[in-house]
Amino acid sequence: MPTEPAPRQADKQAIARAFGRAAARYDRFAELQRISGERLMALSADHPGRQVLDAGCGTGYFSRRWRQQGREVTALDLSAEMLAQARQQQAATHYLSGDIEHLPLPDGAVDISFCNLAVQWCDTLPRALAELHRVTRPGGRVVFSTLAQGSLQELAQAWTALDGSRRVNRFLPAAAIEQACRPWRHQISAEQHCLWFSDVMTLMQSLKGIGATWLQQGRAPGLLGRRRLDALATGYPRREQGFPLSYHLIYGVLYHD
């Protein structure tokens, strides 16, 4: 099955710093994360299990949603600042600083492992899914969402038109994501979603606001100057509704039989 190479090895410290900088304002910009997370909850809400791991919890928005259902929630994040936000809001029952690819939990610790738009930041998807499956007890369920190839294509196109660069993180093809799920009984679904912005500056601020900066060799550049943004806008594929930013969302369910 043809696939493209996996994204470059993630600099976990750079990722943690980027999300840490975004922690205080994250919820103002996290529209896509809320859409995706609600869909994930719907895929797992019928499971009777009481203990939930929110892996890559961010500010704890969905940790809190799980608690409202009467679940016992362990919130885990790579960013200390994100975890502090979750703790401040009393979003979870327990809080853990950790990496999804090396979860600091024993085998079979939870009934549901919930991971909303976080595994795309991991070094390898198979390892991340294997860890989420490991800490889920038999009869439990792993539910995750991630971004696939084709996401942010308008922004990539604009950068290429401007200076021949890409400056957009690379995402795995949908086929490679499905392949990573094959060791277990699973279900995969896909969904296209588009966010619209009035101008390129607002668009770029929204990406920075959720910590989704371009991380190439550990570098996370800040916002661009006005002249550079204006130049970027000239090559951006604008539509009547404004400036689009497309996402190819993949939802996965892994069953621990």
Automatic annotation (TrEMBL):
Record bears the keyword Lyase: no
One Pfam family named in its UniProt record: Methyltransf_11
Catalytic function, reaction form: malonyl-[ACP] + S-adenosyl-L-methionine = malonyl-[ACP] methyl ester + S-adenosyl-L-homocysteine
UniProt GO MF annotations: carboxyl-O-methyltransferase activity; malonyl-CoA methyltransferase activity; S-adenosylmethionine-dependent methyltransferase activity
Keywords: Biotin biosynthesis, Methyltransferase, S-adenosyl-L-methionine, Transferase
Gene3D superfamilies: Vaccinia Virus protein VP39 (3.40.50.150)
A Gene Ontology biological process term: methylation
Residues annotated as domain Methyltransferase type: 53-144
The enzyme's E.C. designation: 2.1.1.197
Top EC class of this enzyme: transferase
Pathway membership, UniProt: Cofactor biosynthesis; biotin biosynthesis
Family: Belongs to the methyltransferase superfamily.
Role noted for this protein: Converts the free carboxyl group of a malonyl-thioester to its methyl ester by transfer of a methyl group from S-adenosyl-L-methionine (SAM). It allows to synthesize pimeloyl-ACP via the fatty acid synthetic pathway.
NCBIfam families per UniProt: BioC (TIGR02072)
Annotated protein name in UniProt: Malonyl-[acyl-carrier protein] O-methyltransferase
Organism, as annotated: Affinibrenneria salicis
